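batch job 7 of whatever, protein = Transcriptional regulator
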Amino acid sequence: MDLKQLEYFLAVAEEKQITAAAKRLFVAQPPLSYQLKQLEKELGTKLFIRESHGVKLTDAGKELQEYAEKIVSLAQKAKGQVGKIEKGELGSIRIGSASSSVGELPSAKFKQLKQFYPDLSFDIYEDNTYGIIDGIRSGKIDLGIVRTPFDHTGFDFKELTSEKMVLVTADQNLIQRGHVSLADLAKEPLIIYRRFESIFNSSFAHMGLRPFYAVKCDDSRTAILWAKQGMGVALVPEGIASLYAKGQFLPIDHASWQTHLQLIWKKEKLSPLIVRVVDLF
């Protein structure tokens, strides 16, 4: 018993005539009749009663009709779903999002994608950059939005933003200056996102300055929170400062202090769905 036989069987059951079913299926009558006989032979029972004006189902035929309708419907659904997956229109997108990537997810493009392909689902994993990188390497995550610097070995990427580092402070007298230099920063208790420490150290050393790091942490939002409590001044990317510290940050006069948000993925063949998401960016 195969799918074609069940489709032929259902057509005859619905049309109640071999001739009408053959026309509907775009096949000749002999092949259709042969398939029905093969189906009856395999099942060991009559499925139709031949009458002068057509055919009608036996009790066994009525029972088979219920199963055949479900089987054919499932087969058609499976074919459609597999086709959608192949076209990148169905599936689950596993995206890692660094805490400082707020504003990139969800974007208007993701909303549009969901409108066109309502069967898509999203699994969002929130972590720091290194946690997301580990997730991509292990296969837990498909794509990541992370912040430089990091080791790009084994990854492809697209750059999303380029941002300056800024100073966040609760001291309005400092804010009123409008900007600060590295020499100014060396006089302040600094709160830093630990992964930028080597960059900061290099810049201060080049100027012959020795900074004091009052607090080191692993999240820009944590650095901002401590700065708002007056525990020092935080050095964070401008994008996250504009979201969590409006009116409490100012630029730093040091052009090389820049960071980038990047969309990254493993260097391997991507599924059609992931290709579609990458193309959004």
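notes: The first helix runs from residue 3 to 15.
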